[in-house]
Structure formats: C-alpha cells, structure tokens
Specification:
EC number: 3.6.1.66
Number of domains: 1
Shape: globular
Helix content: 25-40%
Radius of gyration: 17 Å
Strand content: 15-25%
Largest sheet: 7 strands, mixed
Number of strands: 7
Distance between the termini: 14 Å
CATH class: Alpha Beta
Pfam families: Ham1p_like
Order of helices and strands: EHEHEHEEEEHH
Number of helices: 5
CATH architecture: Alpha-Beta Complex
Subunit structure: Homodimer.
Family: Belongs to the HAM1 NTPase family.
CATH topology: Maf protein
Strand order of the largest sheet: 2-1-3-4-5-6-7
Enzyme class: hydrolase
Length: about 200
C-alpha cells in the first residue's frame, strides 16, 4: 500500500483524483485530513510550475509523498487567459459564478467559431525530500458557449462544450467526463510511472 497525499483542498478535484487512484493500491489522504498541511502560494507562470511548487513545498513540510496538480482554462481569443489565474479570474479565489460571468463578458463580441479553448492539467509527484519524481500533463479541447448550461462539474464546466458531444462538461455524465477530461488524461499519463516507481525494490 503506497501512502500518498493529494495536494489539494478542492473537493471536486479530490473526487476525480480518487476515482483514478484505486484505494486497494494507494492509501490516499487529502490536505483537509492533515492538520499541519500548509497553503502553498501559486507563484508559477505555468501550470507545470505551480504543480511542482505545490507538490515539493508540501512534501518537504510534511515529510511525505505528495501528488499535486494545477489546472485551468486557456481561451484562444483571450491569448490564453485566464490560464494560471483561472480560479481567481474575477478576483476572489474559487468564485465560479463570478469567474464565468467575467469570461462571458470578455467574450461578448467574439463569434462562436472563434471561441475555442482548452482545459489544461499538469500533475507532479514529489518525494518526501522535495524532489520531483514524476510529471505528466493532459489537455482537452472545446469551445466556450454564450451562456451556461448544466448543473454538474465545477469551475468553467457550464460554459465549456465538448464539440463531439454537443454538451458542456456540466451536462455530461461523470463517467463520460472522466474519460475525456484534462485531469483524467494527465493521470493516465502519470499512472504508469507511479506503478514503476512503487514496484522498485
């Protein structure tokens, strides 16, 4: 059993991470379960830099293996914004409604064919000494709708449409979203490396 700290307090992200990391192989702990965990400032300029910061700083502080991720939305018409500022695009961290409203305002005059966007996710595993051991990334492409639709998901999911399904992430069944999402794609890239690592003598 491999003891692993999932470096996030975001309950929605924890659900997706835990679905991809079966409990029979991994002993998983969220930061909410660890009283002495720290808040790591996300000062990186890229998703991969922020994922590495969150993994290594938390790992050194706790003296444990930490898997951290950083993810967000990049909109082509906004030259990649909101990017690493996705969770705090409107000013306050985690205010999904305000973030979505700002995104719609910024894209108000942009025609549908130019509202292309991508969700990005980067994951990073740090050993207890703060050394990066595995990194992986995943991307999922779509388009930003002109109004929100669906009650599932979180973040920009009510606006992010998967063209092949003609549905937003917030409208898709969780099983389908798990197969397509940027986070799931990153974890699928990550898991073979983790399996090799824990099988080493």
């Amino acid at each position: 059993m491999f003891d692993l700290v999932l470096g996030t307090n975001n309950a929605n992200k924890l659900i997706e991470l835990r679905l991809m990391l079966p409990a029979e192989h991994y002993s998983l702990h969220s930061l909410a379960e660890i009283p002495d965990s720290i808040d790591v400032e996300e000062t990186g300029e890229t998703f991969s830099e922020n994922a590495a910061l969150k993994a290594t700083e938390q790992a050194k502080h706790l003296g444990r293996w930490v898997l951290a991720e950083d993810s967000g939305l990049a909109v082509d018409a906004l030259r990649g914004a909101p990017g690493v500022y996705s969770a705090r695009y409107a000013g306050r961290h985690g205010d999904d409604e305000a973030n979505n409203a700002k995104l719609l305002s910024e894209l108000a005059d942009v025609p549908m064919e130019k509202r292309t966007a991508r969700y990005h996710c980067e994951v990073c595993l740090s050993d207890p000494e703060g050394n990066v051991r595995i990194t992986a990334g995943g991307v999922c492409g779509g388009v930003i709708r002109t109004e929100p639709s669906g009650s599932g998901g979180f973040g920009y999911d009510p606006l992010f449409e998967i063209r092949e399904y003609h549905k937003t992430f917030a409208e898709l069944d969780l099983t389908v979203k798990r197969a397509l999402s940027h986070r799931s794609r990153a974890l699928r890239q990550f898991l073979p490396g983790l399996r090799r690592l824990i099988s080493q003598p």
